[in-house]
Amino acid sequence: MSASRFIKCVTVGDGAVGKTCLLISYTSNTFPTDYVPTVFDNFSANVVVDGSTVNLGQEDYNRLRPLSYRGADVFILAFSLISKASYENVTKKWIPELNHYAPGVPIVLVGTKLDLRDDSQYLADHPSALPISTAQGEELKKQIESSSYIECSAKSQQNVKAVFDAAIKVVLQPPKKNKKKKSGGCSIL
Q1: Would you say residue 182 lies in a domain?
Q2: What CATH number corresponds to the domain at position 75?
Q3: Domain for residue 179, yes or no?
Q4: How many domains does the chain divide into?
Q5: What's this model's pTM, rounded to 2 decimal places?
Q6: pLDDT digits over 48-87, tens only?
Q7: Which of 11, 111, 154, 182 is within CB 3.0–4.6 Å of 81 for a Cys-Cys bond?
Q8: DSSP string spanning 34-103?
Q9: What InterPro entries does UniProt report for this protein, alphabetically (predicted)?
Q10: Higher per-residue confidence, 32 vs 189
């Protein structure tokens, strides 16, 4: 019997894109019906201390969040397939942060809320929801050099297992890197 291996998989992405639902759906095969923001989602509170107003908000979490990145074997970077802002933040916010704090760690790009992308009633009720196409997701995968791109629905369980299978596979069977051989030359300065 072979020894089991621990893999540290960190899930990141904008608040309310479905990270917690994805994790709960994968681990318990159930979909949570209530939104429960997790520790690094968008929180903000103004507190008065000794007559001074102190804002405890996103800035503090932005500073603390990277502490969870240490030792990560793989990242699952999630965006919502019905949120153009979360899609854009992949390149504006998340990739710069991951490249800074965890360079070289593989990333599985995940489009969440697949069940809502083609839900005409949901889209009619939420005119600000701008669906992201599979082609846009694939293009983003190439742009950020992600190991894979998967669209899923935590609610219907569609492709949820595939997300984590891809994360495990990229750690246990990393893609071969094309190393260019340096030409043996001589430089005279």
Answers
A1: no
A2: 3.40.50.300
A3: no
A4: 1
A5: 0.82
A6: 555 655 444 555 667 788 888 999 999 999 999 999 999 9
A7: 111
A8: S----TTS---EEEEETTEEEEESHHHHHHHGGGGGTT-SEEEEEEETT-HHHHHHIIIIIHHHHHHHST
A9: P-loop_NTPase, Small_GTP-bd, Small_GTPase, Small_GTPase_Rho
A10: 32
